[in-house]
């Protein structure tokens, strides 16, 4: 899971940015050409304070593959990086944006950006976090 920060990839969202989530309407609605159910292998989800954290692990996370409109891409990228408090190269990041393979439920594979818990937080979650069984935050008992 890696990639150049300059790649114009779709986004794999798994928490509050999913359709119906509290951040979807203001951050994504009207700015996408496609949103479809997808999954991403090699990840597990942990409960956070009102949102989940994805961490590399033996599992699969369910979410949505979101493709911004070409004219909206830079703004969507800016908004999502800001929401996730991600700044390239900043050691204080809570999330890191990385490229990984998403699998839309209709088939195929697409590389996509996904925000994962940064290393210090991921280590803490593995040690003492609450795992979300099944990897689907929308279905989790919150």
From TrEMBL:
**Top-rank taxon, per record:** Bacteria
> Which InterPro entries does this entry report, sorted A to Z?
AIG2-like_dom, GGCT-like, GGCT-like_sf
What positions does the domain Gamma-glutamylcyclotransferase AIG2-like occupy? 11-138
Protein name, UniProt field: Gamma-glutamylcyclotransferase
């Amino acid at each position: 899971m890696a990639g150049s920060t300059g790649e114009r990839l779709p986004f794999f969202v798994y928490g509050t940015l999913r359709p119906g989530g509290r951040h979807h309407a203001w951050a994504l609605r009207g700015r996408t050409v496609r949103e479809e159910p997808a999954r991403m292998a090699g990840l597990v989800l942990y409960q956070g304070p009102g949102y989940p954290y994805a961490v590399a692990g033996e599992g699969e996370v369910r979410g949505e593959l979101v493709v911004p409109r070409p004219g909206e891409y830079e703004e969507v990228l800016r908004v999502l990086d800001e929401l996730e408090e991600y700044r390239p190269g900043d050691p204080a990041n809570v999330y890191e944006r990385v490229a990984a393979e998403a699998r839309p439920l209709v088939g195929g594979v697409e590389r996509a950006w996904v925000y994962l818990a940064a290393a210090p937080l991921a280590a803490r979650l593995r040690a003492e976090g609450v795992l979300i069984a099944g990897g689907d935050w929308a279905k989790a008992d919150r």
